Amino acid sequence: MKEAEKTQSEARASALRSVLRKLNGSSTDIEASACISSDGYNIAAVLGDGVDADRFGAMCASLLALAHRAAQEIQRGNLKLVLVEGEQGVMLLVQAGPDAILAVAAKPSKSLGMIFLEARKVAQELLGVLQSHP
């Protein structure tokens, strides 16, 4: 990778991490977030200790791709988000443009609707950063 491309890539990742940190700080319920390319490459992440960002990115991209295909198969239109609920909390996958995914991990919360709204808003912010930092 050329030095100029590396500098641009680092600037983009830094801007994306800033948006993700703001998201994580917006609610005590949000524990981690990541911006992942549609092919599973981890573009930027603010994850907890012990999380393999590369593996996490690949799994999220696969999950979103399968959900997209399932939604198309049953004619549900364009996929907006995927919700995975576990005993320890939830994970949202939100499309952030044609080539990126926002993944959000949150504690079990009574304000899940607010987390949905914030995730959708942040997905649009991430798209803006990605478009301004090609």
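Next protein, fold it too.
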Amino acid sequence: MNQKSENKEELLAHVDGIVRMVKIVFIAILMFPFVFYVASKINFDREEIAAVVEEPLIENGIDVESGLIVDEHYELVKGTCSACHSIALVTQNSATREGWKELIVWMQKTQKLWDLGDNEALILDYLEKNYAPKKQGRRAPLKNIEWYEL
């Protein structure tokens, strides 16, 4: 190829790039008013959206997201405990108030749990009430059984 045809091809490629860019800008200019029109027709009630987003789903007294029993201070427990580990570590265990306190002290000494301050008593109140040891054995005794003779 000679110099003239190379220059012509470069010029055509350059013009082609400019044409593509003009098309994109043109489409964007055409779409811009449409986007604003659609956005103006959507009624966003920020308070309603915030209420839906922030309100936990509760079924049968259990917070569906965490599995915690819904009771006073459960959100404090949820926020504090889930900062480091799964809430399942709470819900699958039970202990006396002293047992939960020992666990908190252990986490502070070995797992870098921060000082809970005044929240510690509230967390212990919740755990003592809702995740205390059960007074029954492994399972509830069978009731209303009709036995048959062998």
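About the second fold: Residues 47 and 99 are 42 Å apart (CA to CA).
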